[in-house]
Design goal:
The protein contains 4 helices and 20 strands. By secondary structure, it is mainly β. The protein has a 6-stranded antiparallel β-sheet with strand order 1-2-5-12-9-10. The longest helix is centred in the C-terminal third of the chain and has 15 residues.
């Protein structure tokens, strides 16, 4: 598959934490927690069917041409417009014997070494699966990327989840590794489950494959199965009313009795903080610069993260 980096300059530091951190479409990199020390994990790239004989491509909102015609590009421009990763997929099968495909993906570990850009393999089984919020004009799938040798050994029949619906408004899907299976057309002898694939993962691919045409998409959240599952459990237990509401430059918390709230900028820095109780349920953000921030609220009975935009 033809892979092009969405960002090939100014790589930023990536967290070395052991868990995948929630990504809300506000930074160029996803903090996978599996960086190998080279600080190249979590970057987005595109892939197409070009090397297989197709002519499919992806056009981003700030482009007039596909990334195949671009040397360097700053993903932050796309983030600013989409509050995520978005664009149009132009599918054209050309000489392919099957439908054309294209998509976007992020790597899990990063490059193998300073001189070898081959994707390194990592064990992401602790994530338990993947959680994604997206919109799409077609039926997309999520495919687990593996090393070239492993993919060749299973005939490129990578475990995938193909039950994602079309969505004109953002929809969130929580998918366990055990839900990823090899495609039905695969008849090879070597089988691989999603759980096995997660232990030798190189990337997570948001893949779009259909008849020739133009299809729009937007990915606005990536998280681990365990994080989303925990959030859903807490919502069922009665925290669905918990929320941070922005009125001008005042952040007001509702449905929260006792917790700590932090406001985090795009560099991961805590720029404001307050302890919420019966006497304090607001936070003044008048001194902060305009831009996108995350609000993280954590307490005994509540735990959620929310994106806000200061103007």
């Amino acid at each position: 598959m033809d892979k092009k980096l969405l960002l090939t300059a100014a790589l930023c530091a990536v967290s070395t934490a052991l868990a995948l951190e929630p990504w809300y479409g506000d930074t160029e990199f996803i903090k996978t927690g599996l960086d190998n020390g080279l600080e190249t994990s979590g970057y987005w790239y595109t892939f197409t069917d070009n090397k297989d004989g197709g002519q499919s491509k992806i056009i981003m909102p700030t482009q007039t041409q596909s990334y195949e015609a671009t040397d360097d590009y700053v993903l932050s421009d796309i983030i600013d417009q989409c509050h995520g990763v978005c664009g149009d997929v132009i599918l054209k099968r050309d000489t392919l014997s099957y439908q054309g495909f294209a998509g976007v993906a992020f790597n899990v570990v990063g490059e193998s070494s300073p001189t070898d850009r081959t994707p390194a393999v990592g064990d992401a089984s602790s994530w338990e699966g993947i959680c994604i919020t997206y919109t799409s004009e077609m039926l997309p799938s999520i495919e687990l990327g593996l090393s070239e040798d492993v993919e060749a050994s299973i005939g490129k029949a990578n475990p995938a989840y193909s039950l994602l619906p079309k969505a004109s408004v953002p929809v969130t899907k929580i998918i366990a590794w055990s839900d990823f299976t090899q495609p039905s057309w695969y008849i090879g002898e070597k089988k691989m489950s999603g759980i096995e694939a997660a232990k030798q993962l190189t990337s997570i691919r948001f893949k779009m494959q259909a008849k020739d045409g133009k299809y729009s998409f937007n990915i606005s959240r990536i998280d681990s199965y365990s994080n989303c599952k925990t959030s859903n459990i807490k919502t069922v237990q009665g925290t669905s009313a918990a929320r941070a509401n922005l009125f001008g430059r005042t952040l007001e918390f509702t449905g929260v009795s006792t917790a700590t709230a932090e406001v985090i900028n795009l560099q991961g820095q805590v720029v404001a903080k307050v302890s919420i109780d019966n006497t304090a349920s607001t936070l003044n953000l008048a001194t902060l610069d305009a831009g996108i921030y995350l609000v993280r609220v954590a307490g005994k009975a509540v735990n959620f993260t929310q994106k806000i935009v200061l103007k």
